[in-house]
Amino acid sequence: MENRKIQDRLGRLRAWMQDQGIDLYMIPTADYHNSEYVSDYFKVREYFCGFTGSAGTLLVWREGAGLWTDGRYFIQAEKELEGTGVTLFRMQDEGVPTIEEFLAGKMGPGQTFGFDGRVIPAGQGKKYEATLAPRNVKICYDRDPAQDIWKDRPAFPAGRVWALDEALAGESVESKLGRVMDRVEKAGAEGLLLTKLDDLMWLFNLRGCDVECNPVAMSYGFITRERAVLFLRKDAMDKSAENFLAEKKVRVEEYGAVADFLRALPKGGKVLADMRCCSYALYRLLSERREVVEGDNPTELLKAVKNPVELAHMEEVYLKDSVALTRFIYWLKTNIGKTEITEISAADHLEKLRREIPGFLDLSFPTIAGFGANAAMMHYEATPEDHAVLQPRGMLLVDSGGQYLGGTTDVTRTIVLGPLTDEEKQHYTAVAAGMLQLSAARWLYGCTGRNLDILARQPVWDLGIDYKCGTGHGVGYILNVHEGPQGLRWRFTEGQKEAVIEAGMDVTNEPGVYLEGKYGIRIENVMVAENDVKNEYGQFMRFKTLTWVPIDMEAIVEERLTEGQRALLYAYQRTVYEKVAPLLPAEEAEWLRKETRAYG
Fold this sequence. Notes:
By secondary structure, this protein is of the alpha+beta class. It folds into three domains: 2-149, 3-Layer(aba) Sandwich (Creatine Amidinohydrolase, Chain A, domain 1), CATH 3.40.350.10; 162-303, Creatinase/prolidase N-terminal domain (Creatine Amidinohydrolase, Chain A, domain 1), CATH 3.40.350.10; 305-596, Alpha-Beta Complex (Creatine Amidinohydrolase), CATH 3.90.230.10. The strands form eight sheets. It has a six-stranded mixed sheet with strand order 4-3-2-1-5-6. The chain has a six-stranded mixed sheet with strand order 12-11-10-8-13-14, sandwiched between helices. Strands 21-28-27-24 form a four-stranded antiparallel sheet. A hairpin with a 2-residue loop joins strand 27 (525-535) and strand 28 (538-545). Helix 4 (99-106) runs parallel beside helix 5. The longest helix is centred in the middle third of the chain and has 28 residues, at 308-335.
């Protein structure tokens, strides 16, 4: 039934394309700000092809359709696209063309390539121009088929917007604006067009609820030394936010007025805009009035380096969150095989434990609880129609996190539910070893995630296998669970920022093994980079761990660990016990003592 529904929608899209004179139409996974996660209003790609992952681009033409997505979603996409008539293009696989290569081979003179310029980043739009101009292909960027076809489209987001107390933010709006403009002027511009939602929330010390699990509000900003203009839904602001912005002398305009504002700018001068975040449509408007200086949002790096107030709150929140997950593991191991537990009821129980933590706001992303083969899908999400009942065998992978007044958490544990195969234990041991090795890293300042990734990946590579994703990403502070520019990966592809790891940057540490049709294993902690010794060789750096949740010793084959890896394991488990046990009921604390084998 669902497949026929998708085929019908694609049929209506092709009829619409014919009416509009468009030969090939592109639908990305994005809102007007190129956000990673989007509100239901913007799930146009999902509506037309059925793929529910958070990353992917749909191309539709008269005789076919294709979805481009990365290795995190191959298994999921193959399953969800079956019978829809949409072909899966596995990005970065050998022989698979990029979207630009496909367009160059597919389109010819006189044809028209279409997309909604509000949801395409300016940098990508310019690349499509460069690819198709020599082929005399026209670009149409002002049409949105969902407006005509998606009759029950969800409402445009307009959730409550509230001000973050400076005692939590650790820095005033005035100070942030000053630091941002210092960098804007250093880049050779007099103004900044800021369109990235989490950057806007950080800069103006605001939070919202327009995207599930992401405390952001739909907004734009235009900043100079003389003024700061913030475009958002005025009816969404609570009174405290209204008063707060007035006090900070921030001019507030309606969200939808940004295009008219740019059209009315006097000609002349230079404005900095990030081609990864600014939409193609807004870029075209801005470039008619001002010279556009293309560069990274200065807010991105400033936001990524957490200040001492933020770090202190994060350390406190991560310990409380670790206690909740430890209690969940105890509950799961105590009850498995005695009462029915599903992937959904397990996730619900973990959420209940988090909600008991003071300052809890929301989950930081929908919990991934995958049993057996389901865990091989990196971004699997159980549904009432399609989920597994847990059995006292194998493992359950749980990737989860919370939003709190004081931090955003992200943690994964793969939990033993019953007997394991030798292969499962071998792979779990390798993943644990990699995670611990990276935790203990020491490096000279100037390294990026490319230099450090091998520490986590090497034990898995030693087995001749790999995981098709990065090892780590930055995490926001009461903001998006995925944050840049820092990241840990061995290969940085187009659009992925490679940044020096700075003191104060937090990053996840999450190696894994994913075997399609069998199981998935991931162990994830969050760490913060900090300065270590400084000597004649330079500034050395290290990581400080924030996550304190036990590693499952039932899956560890200690003989497969080196002496150094065993020492790291014992030290981590002992610290988990010392930090978490005092915060647990007596029975659970005793269980944790045995679970960590901290003291024999």
